Amino acid sequence: MNLILLGPPGAGKGTQAKRIQERWGLIQLSTGEILRDAVEVGDEIGVKAGPVLAAGDFVPDEIVIHVVAERLSKPDCLDRFMLDGFPRTTVQAGALDDLLNDRNLKIDAVIQLVVDDSVLTERITGRYACSKCSAGYHEKFKQPKIAGICDVCGSESFGWREDDKAETVRSRLEHYHLATEPILPYYRERGVLFEVDGMQEIDRVAEEIDGILAQFK
Fold first, then answer.
1. Per-residue pLDDT tens for 196-214?
2. Residues known to be catalytic
3. Three state DSSP letters for the chain
4. How much is the pTM?
5. Which domains are assigned to the chain?
């Protein structure tokens, strides 16, 4: 089973992706994480992608397609992967088809998390994480049990992502609506698009996703 998980920034893709990975054994391929790792390492891709990510813009198609192709070539992605954050444009969707065709693979389901922009902005701008173990928190919805101390590792150091600032968030949402929403009809016409209300409780969203994936056991 191969899956695409779609939704605007802050829709909860990361949270649901981890649950899907644990429950269904799919390999999570997050282009955002791959690119951020490249930025941290400072390799050629990271140097190109860093300023774009910091500005909240989409990384050029050719760069994203390159990192996805490289990751899909690994043995663990033979036929049990979940794409998180890709494709984001019609060009990327076409390139993905070419990559999969070359490997005799296909996408079984595309799950879109549908959410409200105003709620997303609040969700994203309040996010922060432990600088040591990366445990996630939120200024309003999920603060540490003891103020200033990470629940997981006890660290007192926290950080905020540059692309979670309000201006950047609005830019990312605008880009999503302009560039990514046009790919939805592409998958709807092929009968593989499923929509899930991402405004529900996390567990309820997970239950609906499980119901969809159960069709492809």
1. 999 898 899 999 999 999 9
2. 13, 88, 127, 161, 172
3. CCEEEECCCCCCHHHHHHHHHHHHCCEEEEHHHHHHHHHHHCCHHHHHHHHHHHCCCCCCHHHHHHHHHHHHCCHHHCCCEEEECCCCCHHHHHHHHHHHHHCCCCCCEEEEEECCHHHHHHHHHCEEEECCCCCEEECCCECCCECCECCCCCCCCEECCHHHCHHHHHHHHHHHHHHHHHHHHHHHCCCCEEEEECCCCHHHHHHHHHHHHHHHC
4. 0.75
5. 3-116+166-216 (3.40.50.300)
